[in-house]
Write a structure and sequence with these properties.
Keywords: Membrane, Transmembrane, Transmembrane helix. This is Flp pilus assembly protein TadB. With 305 residues, the chain is an all-alpha fold. The chain has a domain of 99 residues. Helices cover 74% and strands 0% of the residues. The two termini are 21 Å apart. 26% of the residues are buried.
Length: 305
């Protein structure tokens, strides 16, 4: 767990700049990670995919988020929406006659469309994940006797709830009726569902599809992995939720301070907008504000839905 004193130092800087106390909290819990997939399948060949570049990872993350949220938006259209949103941020910053703030708000507003799509996708994932453990357990139990994932799903499709039922029907139809490759179809299913333990299930299923044999027994650990994952995530959520709340409260004091000074001190506002030192002050204050939100986002990212 990282010390939060560095963040308190940044908060002190905000106090000096804005004459009001601002605190910033950051915590990164040390996670007890479950057994990795590589350990589970060490008896079988497991080839790691090629390491992707940073740009490739960003594009893949955006595409996956759009798919999980049910949006039919191309990557080029997403970037155009983000650019237009960024222009709005630039115009907002221009009202303060501050180039640095305009640049910062351009970046922040460019991020907002992704945040919107991500929030929608997360709401879908929460609905799916509430049903996922039970559905996968049923499939694995049937798979042990059937030794055919498609048949195991078809035999139990009426036991699944929406939207998970539709996802599995689409997967079965792609392989069974339209002749799409098994690997490609199940990878698309994994992207739609977006759960790390389900990703492990998919990798093991692909290995069994290619090699057969007793690899199917490795799948028996998956239901327990779901339970372990849920327990770990709930423990992390309980630990970081109070810190996140404090972070949001303290971050809100920065724009609140600017608003307070604007309403009560006309000279202060003119100083911030029309002088070099004032513009630098506003930039640094907003920088600390967005660093706070970024650190809260990093904290939140520890919870893998």
């Amino acid at each position: 767990m990282f010390s939060i004193y560095f963040i308190f130092f940044l908060s002190t800087l905000a106090i000096v700049l804005l004459l009001m106390p601002v605190n910033l909290n950051f915590i990164k819990p040390k996670l007890k990670k479950p057994v990795t997939l590589e350990k589970k399948v060490e008896k079988w060949e497991y080839i790691k995919p090629r390491e992707k570049s940073y740009i490739e990872k960003i594009n893949e993350k955006i595409k996956n988020t759009l798919i999980q949220g049910g949006f039919s938006i191309k990557l080029s259209e997403f970037y155009f929406i983000s650019f237009v949103s960024g222009i709005v941020g630039w115009l907002v910053g221009s009202a303060l006659k501050n180039f640095l703030v305009s640049l910062m708000l351009f970046a922040v507003f460019s991020y907002l469309p992704y945040k919107y799509f991500y929030t929608i996708a997360n709401s879908y994932k929460k609905r799916i994940n509430a049903q996922l453990e039970n559905a996968v357990s049923i499939i694995i139990a049937a798979f042990q006797s059937r030794e055919d994932l498609i048949l195991a799903i078809k035999d139990n499709i009426n036991n699944f709830q929406e939207p998970l039922k539709t996802y599995f029907i689409e997967f079965v139809n792609k392989v069974d009726k339209f002749g799409m490759p098994f690997d490609e179809s199940i990878d698309e299913l994994a992207v739609k569902i977006g759960h790390p333990i389900f990703d492990d299930f998919v990798k093991l299923a692909k290995i069994h599809y290619e090699k057969g044999g007793d690899t199917k027994y490795a799948l028996l650990d998956i239901p327990e992995d779901f339970r372990d994952h849920k327990l770990i995530m709930s423990e992390i959520d309980a630990e970081i939720s109070p810190v996140k709340i404090l972070g949001y409260i303290f971050a809100a004091t920065i724009p609140a301070t600017l608003l307070f000074q604007r309403l009560t001190n006309k000279i202060y506002y003119d100083l911030l907008v029309n002088t070099t030192i004032g513009r630098i002050t506003v930039f640094v204050a907003f920088l600390i504000f967005f660093i706070t939100l970024y650190q809260i986002k990093k904290i939140d990212s520890q919870i893998k839905i």
